[in-house]
Design a protein that fits this description.
The protein is about 30% helix and about 15% strand. The chain has about 190 residues and is of the alpha/beta class. The chain has one domain: Alpha/Beta hydrolase fold, catalytic domain (Rossmann fold), CATH 3.40.50. Strands 2-1-3-4-5-6 form a six-stranded parallel β-sheet, sandwiched between helices. The protein is globular, with a radius of gyration of 15 Å. About 40% of the residues are buried.
Length: about 190
């Protein structure tokens, strides 16, 4: 049976990294096989630099890779999957997809190279967890992303951007979803219901 210990899990934070109150930080502390993809500059995200760090992290893994991305990290993962060799990636758990197209060209937006959002099927299984009151992506847009990527969509209710402000702690519901996603990898009939 496939379980969490069969993978090297890479935590892929978004803009400004994930702080001490973020569920990604709690998960990384709780599981030995989770580690963060570190970026040189968390405040001025440049796709080419962030992508290079993701590639390095994936290449250092000895087991199949599971990507656990949040916010801008989801835009990184989806674009990277179309440009790099993603054969060692077993799946992607994509939380609070950030609609980088919505923010492109706005004054003060430091993100470079992440747009346009990739609207192609991902080369590995994936799940998108979306909130109805996320200020960075409309729920309908998250649905469109999930459809284009071939991802299963999970409606988590109204959790904002599903980050530190939501005060989720270890986020047990998220862990249940992760466990169901892991159990579904490689199965024909995807029956996740979290």
């Amino acid at each position: 049976m496939i379980d969490i210990n069969n993978f090297d899990i890479l935590i892929v934070p978004g803009w400004h990294n994930s702080g001490p109150d973020h569920w990604q930080t709690h998960w990384e502390a709780a599981f030995q096989n989770m580690r963060r993809v570190e970026q040189d500059d968390w405040d001025v995200p440049v796709y080419s630099a962030w992508s290079r760090r993701l590639t390095e992290a994936v290449r250092q893994c000895g087991r199949p890779v599971l990507l656990v991305a949040h916010s801008l990290g989801t835009a990184l993962v989806t674009r990277w999957s179309q440009e790099e060799d993603a054969t060692s990636v077993a799946g992607a758990f994509l939380v609070a997809t950030s609609d980088v197209d919505q923010f492109a060209g706005t004054p003060g937006n430091p993100m470079l190279g992440f747009n346009p959002i990739i609207m192609k099927r991902l080369p590995f299984p994936s799940v998108v967890l979306a909130s109805h009151n996320d200020e960075r992506v409309a729920f309908e847009r998250a649905e469109a992303f999930a459809s284009a990527w071939g991802s299963h969509l999970v409606d988590v209710g109204s959790l904002g951007h599903i980050g530190s402000a939501a005060k989720l702690g270890l986020w047990p519901k998220g862990l249940v979803c992760l466990g169901q996603f892991i159990a579904s990898i490689g199965q024909e009939n995807d029956q996740r219901d979290c």
